[in-house]
């Protein structure tokens, strides 16, 4: 068990200096013994909690699952922002008697997406990471030491502004919807 959480980051020379071992963690695809999938998941969990700047995931299955999980979180975030924006801008672009038919469902959808994101992703250490596709940035990583030809590379990014944005827009959409519903039933 002691070897499961072992750090395997490799210092690498690159154009702008040397990457420190604490910057990159590689979850190697080594099949030795039983429950290797659990071992890969444990290593990934340890790397996420240690907050490495880059995490390279060699095992295809867990890498694809992690990339999909991050994609779903990104989709919820973008949907919350776009539908909340639609809710808030619809009254400016449509006549008042028709705007509620678009604004209220869009606002409810924004609130639902923001709530689901908050419940499912907010405290997950994976939400601090994005999948890196930029080949120039990937060339700085120690990918030459890998046995897999298609690793998933995660990069840690600050998501405070992103969360503030979708929460602010969702709350503004909620306030607008509550006001419109009150106006509909108070009259």
Give an overview of the whole structure.
The chain is of the alpha+beta class and 187 residues long. It is 56% helix and 12% strand. The protein contains five helices and six strands. The strands form two sheets. Strands 3-4-6-5 form a four-stranded mixed sheet, with helices on one face. Helix 2 crosses helix 5 and helix 3 crosses helix 5. The termini are far apart. The N terminus is likely disordered.
Biggest sheet, in brief?
4 strands, mixed
Shape: elongated
Strand order of the largest sheet: 3-4-6-5
Q: Report how far apart the termini are.
A: 67 Å
Give keywords:
187 residues; 4-stranded mixed β-sheet; alpha+beta
What's the short story on this structure?
This protein has helices spanning 36-50, 60-93, 96-120, 135-138, 160-186, and strands spanning 12-14, 17-19, 24-27, 54-57, 129-131, 152-156. By secondary structure, the chain is α+β, with helices and mostly antiparallel strands.
